[in-house]
Every structure is written in structure tokens, then in C-alpha cells.
């Protein structure tokens, strides 16, 4: 008679990988102002989290904390089980879309290579393995055909594809996106969001996506973190983006309307059209801290 017992090796699962991102009782201030407090948030590998909120609510500051550029006032944060630090190999970062100088000598493949070089001066040491990783990253974002073109001569949508390849070439567990759709036309917005979603589904990369416009990422988002008025709400879109929830956050009547697969928000104080207004002055240029602004975000 065959034994019904299972060996210890077969019964014991392997160690569970750490979550891509974890905040525990986290609080952040900007000067004397409290941005948010007591944030408990776990982003699992492969999850797509959208971060929403009006200017000054702490969205960009939250990214700075994850990148190791700004300390919490209290609580803790880990990235893939480790404290955040500048230049972390666990993080890929896609900055806001801003046109690159047409006269820059960098080719598209050179910019992608910076994702392996860590923004140090000069190109990395050439090798077959390095070239292969760059080619693979360019192919993954459908940018191989302009790999050798000057990056400054590419369109805004093409440049953003290259930035995504740069962020992903080192195979990070967590992809941070800081308003990557700004200044892009609707077709480019759709292409960029689809590329990011395809990557996270194929590789299990967690995505934290800061945006003022939820609609381009609506088909892909698992949860929303909404920051407003020193408070926050976390949950599925259907629970967070409601008139009741946003009215509670802002302390004034807010109307959320769903129409033809889109979400429209009206009545937000100071920014009645807040999911569309310009946010270009708030940014973090590089994970190593170069060009970081002082805005609370």
C-alpha cells in the first residue's frame, strides 16, 4: 500500500519573496505641514498601483522616499525587503516626459545603457552581454528600429519608450513612473501604458504610477492610493474613486462621474479640473538625486 505521507521537502514551500514595496506606519512632513501619516501599504510583485491627488499632496515626495532621497518623519519603508537607497538595483525609474535637446549626441541605445551604468560618467565597459541586454530592452518596448538614432531627434512618444527601456534594462522588481504621460498625445499615452502593463505581467514587475489622469491606465490598475488634505485612501478604483470617498478626503462635495468607460472628477478645491492640470514643475530627474526639486508633490 502506498504511503499517504508527503516528505518534508515536498510539503514545505520555498521562502516567499519579499513584497516589492512596503510602508509601515509611515508619516511624511514637508516643513511644518503634514503630508500624510500612518500609511500602511504593501505592493506585491506584479501589482499595478496608481497614485493620485492634487498638487502638494505628497505624490512626488512619496517617490523620493522610495528612491532613498528623502527620509520619513516616522515609520519605515522597504523595497524588495531592503531599506531604500540611492541607485538601488531593485528600482527602475521613468521620469516625467520632457523633450530632450535635439543636439544631444546620445543615441537611443546609449540612453538605455545608462540604466546599467548607474549614471556614472562615461559609457559602461562594452561586452556582448551588455549589448544583448540593451538590445533586449529596446526590443521589449518596440524601439529597436531607432536604436542608433540620436535620441533628441525622436518624437515624445519614442523618447518615452526609450526611457522605459532604460528603467527596465537592469530587470528591477519595482518600476516607479512619475507622470510619464505628460505632454504625450492620446495614441502615445495608450502605447506607453500598454508597454508598462505588458512588462509587469510578463516579468512580475510591480508598478507604482503617479498620475493626474487615471483614464489611460484605467484598464490596468489593481489599486489606487489617493492623497489629499493630509489624508489618504487605498483600495480598488471602484472603492476609492467615488463621490463619497473623495468628498470625505477633501471635506467638500466632490462629484465623480463615470461615462463611456471614463472617470471624470469635479469640485476639487483650487483645482476643479485636477486630473488634467499641469504638474510639470514637480519632478525627480534621476534616482541618484541629480535635479531633484523641492516641491512636496
For the biggest β-sheet, the strand order reads: 5-6-7-3-8-9
Supply the CATH superfamily name: P-loop containing nucleotide triphosphate hydrolases
CATH class, please? Answer: Alpha Beta
How does CATH name the architecture? Answer: 3-Layer(aba) Sandwich
Overall average residue pLDDT = 83
Number of helices: 8
What does this structure look like?
This protein is 26% helix and 23% strand. It is α/β, with parallel strands linked by helices. The chain has one domain: P-loop containing nucleotide triphosphate hydrolases (Rossmann fold), CATH 3.40.50.300. The strands form 3 sheets. A 6-stranded mixed sheet has the order 5-6-7-3-8-9, with helices on both faces. Strands 2-1-4 form a 3-stranded antiparallel sheet, with helices on one face. It has a two-stranded antiparallel ribbon with strand order 10-11. Helix 4 crosses helix 5 and helix 5 (156-168) runs parallel beside helix 6 (186-203). The longest helix is centred in the middle third of the chain and has 18 residues, at 186-203.
Quick overview:
The protein has eight helices and eleven strands. It has 297 residues and is an alpha/beta fold.
Key traits:
single chain; 297 residues; alpha/beta; Rossmann fold; three-stranded antiparallel β-sheet; disordered N terminus; disordered C terminus
Amino acid at each position: 500500500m502506498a504511503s499517504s505521507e508527503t516528505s518534508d521537502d515536498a510539503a514545505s514551500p520555498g521562502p516567499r519573496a519579499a513584497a516589492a514595496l512596503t510602508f509601515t506606519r509611515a508619516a511624511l512632513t514637508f516643513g511644518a505641514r503634514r503630508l500624510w501619516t500612518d500609511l500602511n501599504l504593501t505592493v506585491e510583485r506584479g501589482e499595478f498601483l496608481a497614485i493620485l491627488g492634487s498638487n502638494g499632496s505628497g505624490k512626488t515626495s512619496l517617490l523620493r522616499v522610495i528612491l532613498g532621497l528623502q527620509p520619513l518623519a516616522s515609520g519605515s519603508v522597504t523595497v524588495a525587503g531592503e531599506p531604500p537607497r540611492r541607485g538601488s538595483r531593485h528600482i527602475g525609474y521613468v521620469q516625467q516626459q520632457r523633450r530632450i535637446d535635439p543636439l544631444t549626441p546620445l543615441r537611443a541605445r546609449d540612453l538605455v545603457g545608462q540604466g546599467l551604468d548607474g549614471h556614472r560618467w562615461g559609457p559602461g565597459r562594452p561586452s556582448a552581454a551588455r549589448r544583448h541586454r540593451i538590445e533586449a530592452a529596446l526590443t521589449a518596448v518596440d524601439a529597436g528600429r531607432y536604436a542608433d538614432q540620436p535620441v533628441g531627434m525622436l518624437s515624445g512618444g519614442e523618447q518615452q519608450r526609450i526611457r522605459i527601456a532604460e528603467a527596465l534594462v537592469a530587470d528591477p522588481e519595482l518600476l516607479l513612473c512619475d507622470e510619464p504621460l505628460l505632454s504625450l498625445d492620446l495614441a502615445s499615452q495608450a502605447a506607453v501604458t500598454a508597454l508598462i502593463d505588458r512588462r509587469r505581467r510578463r516579468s512580475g514587475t510591480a508598478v507604482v504610477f503617479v498620475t493626474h489622469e487615471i483614464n489611460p491606465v484605467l484598464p490596468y490598475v489593481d489599486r489606487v492610493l489617493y492623497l489629499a488634505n493630509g489624508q489618504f485612501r487605498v483600495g480598488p478604483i471602484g472603492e476609492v474613486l467615488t463621490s463619497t470617498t473623495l468628498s470625505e478626503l477633501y471635506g467638500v462635495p466632490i462629484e465623480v462621474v463615470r461615462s463611456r468607460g471614463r472617470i471624470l472628477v469635479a469640485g476639487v478645491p483650487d483645482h476643479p479640473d485636477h486630473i488634467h492640470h499641469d504638474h510639470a514643475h514637480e519632478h525627480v530627474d534621476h534616482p541618484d538625486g541629480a535635479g531633484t526639486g523641492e516641491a512636496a508633490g
